[in-house]
Design goal:
It is a single chain. The chain is of the alpha+beta class. It is built from 19 helices and 23 strands. The strands form 5 sheets. The chain has an 8-stranded mixed beta sheet with strand order 5-4-3-6-2-1-7-8. Strand 17 and strand 18 form a beta hairpin. Helix 1 packs across helix 4. The termini are far apart.
Length: 602
Amino acid sequence: MARIVVLPSAVADQIAAGEVVERPASAVKELVENSLDAGATAIDVAVEEGGRQLIRVSDDGSGMDRDDALLALERHATSKIRNAADLVGVASFGFRGEALPAICSVSRLVIETAPQDGAGTAVHAAGGIVTEVRDVARRRGTTIAASQLFYNAPARQKFLRGPRSEWRSVVETMTTVALTRRDVRFTVTNDGRQALALPAARSLRDRVAALWGAAAVDRMVDVEDVQGPVQVSGLAERPADVGTASRRTFLTVNGRPIRDNGLLRAAEAAYKSTLAPGLRPSLLLDVVLPADAVDVNVHPAKAEVRFRDRWLVERCVEEAVRRALGTFDASAALGVRRWSATGPGWTTRPADVELLRPAPVADGALFQGAVNGSAAATHDADVALARDDRAVAPRPPEPDFPPAPAVETPPTQYVPPLLQLRRTYMMFEHDDGVVLIDQHSAHERVLYEKFMGMLERGEAPSQRLLFPLTLHLAPAEAEAFEANRDVLARLGFEVEGFGGHTLLVNAVPMPHPRFDAERCLRETLAALAGDRDASSHARHERLAATVACKAAIKAGDELSPGEMRALFVALGDTTLPAHDVHGRSTIVQLSWSELERRFGRQ
């Protein structure tokens, strides 16, 4: 007796159906994607019992004549490709020619379709066998109804979940499709009750607002970036809002929705040093790259793709999201922003983005420079900086040279008048409202990025002390010092052992004259005690974040006008100015519209 046989076509069809049709939502996805490939601009989806009893998809697409309607039920019959070369860069959703015959093989199927200016056709089939073909009168487009899913495969049917669970999966599927094709109108009903009514949208923001409300859009910042052949666009959640609502993720590659944990991790990496541990942001991103740089034919349900250069794509995604988080619009807001689903979007004008990115200034003042070359500002900063009681090697007096001839300097960007509130916040007026900056968080961000640069690129200058500091450490703190001795030296701490758990500090970094080196070093070693992270980059990040937090100016420190301006400039030169290294907001906006609403002027 032969041990190898050719499977009957009915069995082969049901095996193929198992790859394509896992549950009702899978059938909905395949039918809706066929409608989209047919050029539909309006699609109506109706299900009963979550799709267990009935799935009906109607569209206004190109439709089919009788021959095509019958041929569409044959396996590997497709209008999307003609030869193997067409698989490179295939733009349609469906191209395998398996979805419709697979659904037909496990359901009772009715197709009603008509092309433009052609006769309508109705095809009835059950279990993969055509039972009736007749003419019908209908307008252009196609309606496909699949009932009693898995009626002839009871083993598969009993693995379906309850109607409510299957319905949730259908809604998730249609949400993904609606986000992918914002130019199409969708309606979705379950047991006669409408759940989704989505008109065609002009943008991803409009679609998100229609799906989840204007509050969901208000938490997002626009991503729009092009690097070489890779374009990344979409929405990323503002760090200040992460964790305040359910996390949502959505990815497309060349217009095809996919699952890709690597791309999500790359996008999340852009949030490093802006989020508290354990928080993960919502991300809705579209990636476009050359067709020959991605292979879409690697998954039966077309849910995954393969990149020719994955590292390049992931790097572009990370940098695109990081650039979006580095804009002024990524800062937190008090109240509701001006964007709404029905009105004009919240726009970030170039001047808004650049407001926190003034031209570079000379080093020497607090926070790496004073602004605008203002002698008064520099004097204010110098007076404030003189209030320092630690013993450091004195600087020689500057020689009394005659004034240098006037030199034309490049214009610097406008820095608004700054006001300090409660010796903790800096406030200024902006075109769209009032902006507050937390001075400690802002300086922490400035120092963190400065220290990371030192650790990654080279040692920092240090200030030698006239009288060395003697530190007596606990055993865990001494162990933390030994583990981080080299990186502490690269930050500017010159430390040597003095017997036992005692250290002698001969030189310290000087990020600003208010810096308390002894307190900073003690608190840093205490925070690092017990840290066993083996990754050198992660150790650098943790050390830089810890030292930045301990070294930054504190709430309650009174700042002179020159110091505030210098901090404003230094913050603008950072990569992610809107958040500190602990995930707290550095910048908070209060819009004029919110103020007017509070005062009853709107």
